[in-house]
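Researcher: Batch entry, complex prediction.
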Amino acid sequence: MSNPGQDLSTQLAVDIQGVGKRFKRNVDRRNSIKERIVRGRSRKPEDFWAVRDVSLQIPKGSVYGLIGHNGSGKSTLLKMIGGIYRPTEGSITTDGRVASLIELGAGFHPEMTGRENISLNGSILGMPKKEIAAVTGEIIEFSGLGDFINDPVKHYSSGMYVRLGFSVAVHMKPDVLLIDEVLAVGDEEFQRKCFDHLYALRRSGRTIIVVSHGLGQLEGLCDEIAWLEHGQMQEFGAPTTTIASYLRKVNSQEAARYPEVTAVRAEGEEARPGDQTLRVRTAAIVDTAGNPLNHTETGSTFQFRIGFTTSEPVLGPNVRIALQHESGPLVTMIGNHRLGFDLGTVSGDNVFDVALVDNPLLPGRYRVHIDVFDFTGSRLLDSWNDAVEFAVRSQSGEIGQGFVQLPAQFRLG
Amino acid sequence: MLTDLYRQRALIGAFANRDFATRYRSSILGWAWSLIQPLAILVVFAAVFSLVFRIQAPDLGNGEGSSYAAFLFTGLVTWNLFAGLLNLSMTQLKSNGELLKKVQFPAWAPILGASIVQLIQVLLELAVLVVMFLWLGNVGWTWVLAIPILVGTALFAQGIGLVLSIINARFGDVMYIVAVVLSALYFLTPVLYPISMVDGQNELLSLVVKLNPMSWYVESMHEVMYSLVAPPALVIAALLVGGFLTFWAGLAIFNRGSEDIGELL
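Model: Structure tokens for the complex:
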């Protein structure tokens, strides 16, 4: 793709040099004249830098991802590239027409039909009338709106609205397309269409800059990713490595911020099903050394620690742990009988430690339900729904889809 | 600066189209409202001011008596052009705020687009005025001079409107202040009464009325449309050039003030 004879600068779609953006804190935005007069200009508003010292060279025809926490400055940077904000310092040079998908259908007028809005939106995005007319059919086709295109957009569902918005923006044939958190539009099928279209745009030499929290999506789409933190560039480079460093930071920060909030729960004295000859008292997620955790990672071993008391000795209890994904489905049920572990006779106050070796759960939140039966499996001793909840995070940056990672092996031949 | 306007004519046109198409879309009578409203006001004002206050309009240019309604409507059309553009322009930045925060394009485009639609409304009113004078048999070549006068009025209003829109985006109070000032100015402009009525009255009042630029535009319209008298060429030129300069200055101030419009709104 790269042409060694060409000057480097002509191959850049966007050249960001030491850019900074300072905002006045909204403490007192003197939006009325009275306030201006009463308080005057004496009190200096607090400034803060949303973006500072960011330099970035984005080559033509690349897909560039921006990641970071909320408030890290990535949207501000995107708005500066789009020319909506002026940089306080530094410079941004863009080559060609920039279209921003900062919000889909931002210029739609509810009273106008889809078709009328296409031409309005095209004009606002800076497209000549002829070109708009030429792509209108394609836009309607892509949006899949059919006859609805002649209805006022106020009658559209939110899905139809964003589908039209997305179709308009990507068909404006911008040289640089800015996308802010709008990739998750429409149903599965439409999303796939969007991605196909973005790939096609990239193949035709357009540059795409995308801000998203969907790390998995970005990893597949981007050539390079930049990570911003408090408005400053932390790292940029290959998607996998940048996302991995970002996730490491996120995980460690979260652990530091909530040292006391661990996935531990002690029960109250509420009535529960079962005869309560064995009653579960606590449920916690701990590491292999027994230290409480607030989250765990895919692939690392951790344990469920279940504290209990008995009113009489219990022979060979059958402990079942059900794991339910936050989205509803039951992922699996772990039981000591099924796995062939005999716990012997238990009595008094004690704990069960259930180790999940090389945690196969993929990132997400999981709810834990605990049932304890007698050795026959027919008499319920205790049943604690939603005993505890814990999060699984990604270690590597690989996000994956679904709930579990199966121990598969690949080889050639 | 002015060539930018020409280069972006498609964008201005797109906004004009939007405003034209949506202005009366949800009402049954549609564009008829643009005439019903001013005509209703005309009937009420004509009744109150000629019957109750007994204001006497000057003689018609054709020498066949006088018509307070025709006199009043001449002034109203001119005033509506001015006040309509001003009010509409002032709120455009705010009403297009969501768009301006998200897409980069010249911020004056929606304002000028809205103004074009307002001008269509003025043309409709003007057509009614012409019909009215034809019916009265009050026709003259001086009518041609209405064109530069109205163009001057529109440019003058638009220049002020652009500046007010940018101030209003910063300070929300401005639109309320302008509402008060406009209603005062309305009475300080010879729309409801002939300018001769302020002569020999309170000197300060008479001075204010005569210094008010809108008085010049409205009075010139009275002369060319109603009295069929041609004002000196210099006056017509001054009205046109004054309007143009106001517009030009307004646009320059607007461009300076709207550089960070995406952050302001």
